[in-house]
Amino acid sequence: MNLTSPSQVRSLIASIGFEPSKLLGQNFLIDKNILDIIIKTAEISKNEHVLEVGPGLGVLTEQLAASAGRVTAVEKDKRLFSYLCEKFNDVKNVDFMHADMLDVAIDDMGGVEKLISNLPYSVGSRILVNMIMADRRPARMVVTVQLEVAQRIVAKPDGKEYGVLSVWAQSGYDVKIVKNVSPECFWPKPEVTSAIVSLIKHDRFRMEPLQRKLFFALTKQAFAHRRKQLGPMLARMPAVVRVEQKEVLIILERMGVESMARPENLGIDKWCELVKCLGRG
User: Fold this and answer.
1) Are residues 96 and 151 located together in one domain of the fold?
2) Cα–Cα distance between 231 and 112 in angstroms, integer?
3) Strands 28-29 and 186-187
4) Peptide bond into 6 cis (omega under 30)
5) Predicted TM-score (pTM) of this structure
6) Which residues fall within 8 angstroms of residue 196, CB to CB, at 6 or more apart?
7) Which domain holds residue 12?
């Protein structure tokens, strides 16, 4: 069966008694060119363990199985899980998990090198955050997400899209939008444009475990009040930074950061430097 053919996909869905859920963001990729771009960008090798979230009907899973040493695919929908288990019954390097990926710890999955997925629209950014925060985060991620989410991932300081997702993703990954994806490339057709995003792991802002914990807590709280000035705001975060206001101002001055700067004005390097300075405090 050709899973990039809309008519065959509709026929398959009808045969298994399945109705795609808009709430769960179930929109199936039906464009072979986009599928090929995802696989090419992923640069998968035969010794790698690849994770797929939301395999759906298995159109991407087929390509991953042909390229990777091992594929783990996590499917939340019971009907799709049953269909996939039957479809790939004879494919020895693919394992399916019937679970919500938000309830699965990537650190417990036995060393996943890459995440390659058309992520469900409803939870795509939350899944990415969990991957980024994991101790054993994937070395590479190639994901299809809403264009709005993709723009937030790659956003630069001083822009309205720049926020906690931008800071967290770029602190550990080199990120770029590979290609925008039209709604016409999916069935059912979503109401939004999507994008393929590449994230390649780097260690330019290496932090100790306690510093990483502080980094995530500090940036999360700071961007929850993104229009407030850093100096006064940081001084009111004793539970997070445990540094007196006078010392906060000294640290910012030493870093060359105005106390009146706002969270969106700091680049990734400055956020990491600030965390290390506050951690020493």
Assistant:
1) yes
2) 40
3) antiparallel
4) no
5) 0.94
6) 34, 37, 38, 41, 142, 143, 144, 177, 178, 179, 181
7) 6-201
pLDDT at 43 over 90: yes
Domain boundary among 158, 176, 201: 201
What CATH number is associated with residue 258? 1.10.8.100
Boundary residue ending a domain (158, 183, 201): 201
CB atoms within 10 A of CB 159: 12
1 within some domain = no
Nearest residue to 123 via CA among 198, 20, 25 = 25
Query: DSSP secondary structure string, 76-112?
Result: --HHHHHHHHHHTTT-TTEEEEES-GGGS-GGGSS--
Q: 259 and 164 in one domain?
A: no
Q: How far apart are CA 161 and CA 165, in angstroms?
A: 9
Which range is least confidently modeled, 119-133, 153-167, 247-261?
Answer: 247-261
Q: How far is CA 96 from CA 53, 80, 101, 188, 218, in A?
A: 10, 11, 12, 24, 36
Q: What are phi and psi of 18, to 5 degrees?
A: -115, 140
Q: Are residues 197 and 227 in the same domain?
A: no
> pLDDT (tens digit, 9 = 90+) per residue, 112-140?
999 999 999 989 999 999 999 999 999 99
Tokens 């956020």 sit at which residue? 271
Question: Residues 119, 230: one domain?
Answer: no
Residue for token pair 């929908």: 77
Please check whether residue 138 is in contact with residue 165, taking contact to mean a CB–CB distance below 8 angstroms: no
